[in-house]
Amino acid sequence: MPDLDKDVDKTAVAARFSDAAQRYEQAAHVQKEAAARFDAWLARQVAAEPASIVEIGCGTGLLTRLLHRRYPRARLHATDLAPAMVAACRAASADAPNLEFSVCDGRDARFDPAPDWVVSAMCFQWFDPLRDVLAHHLASSGVLAFSIVLDGSFSAWRVAHERAGMEPGLLACPNHQQLLRVCQGLGAARVVSERVTINEWHANGLSFAHSLRAIGADRPRPGHAPVSLKPVLRQLAQGFDADYEIGFFLIEK
């Protein structure tokens, strides 16, 4: 995962996602399905309705709108590092009551008053060290719930690189069992997790690469040197399923 302790890295990530804001929802098919699944999963885990929710990494509002629909009386504060994403989220929810928006760094942001819930959808894989972020938000909320991209994702893309003797430039993502143990080690009363797979068909490898760029998620791992992808693309010319391995986590005090 990228080291976002450096301001230049934080700025670069914000710029990529801001650039993608206007086209994001046309390309974010997996993210939309994952947000719907996560919203329904979260509702099954916690019966009590929260009075206030903070969302970290709201993007254009895929999860924001679902949360507001499910918990219309809750105060919902949607945040993101990318200003254009926050603007798009605000525009998509312009007439909705009980909504607040702000641009902030989700790693260490503080909220006053403290929310009942802190939630995030497919954002926390950008944070390193993740344990510190989880501990920070759990300390100031009753429930911390998030979905996250896991390390088994994009297996066909990875195998094609391996066969070509190459290393993929994909960011490193957490292992499900290791992350579960991290969550269990935070001293909370309850930790629940589930792993889901969402497949997205791509006609070829270039289509997959373009899909990551369209949502602003094409930033390579630190230290990766760009190389020709022709040996990889040749292997994927007949199309393939890009498998998104996603973990749902709920930590409750």
Helix content: 25-40%
Identify the overall geometry.
Answer: globular
What value does the Rg take, in angstroms?
18 Å
Low-confidence stretches: 1-8
Question: What is the H/E string?
Answer: HHHEHEHEEHEHHEHHE
User: Can you give the mean pLDDT?
Assistant: 93
Output the number of helix runs: 10
Protein model, in words:
It is a single chain. The chain contains 10 helices and 7 strands. It has 253 residues and is an alpha/beta fold. It has a 7-stranded mixed beta sheet with strand order 3-2-1-4-5-7-6, with helices on both faces. Helix 5 (83-92) links the parallel strand 2 and strand 3. Helix 3 runs parallel beside helix 4 (62-70). The chain starts with 6 loop residues before the first helix and ends with a strand.
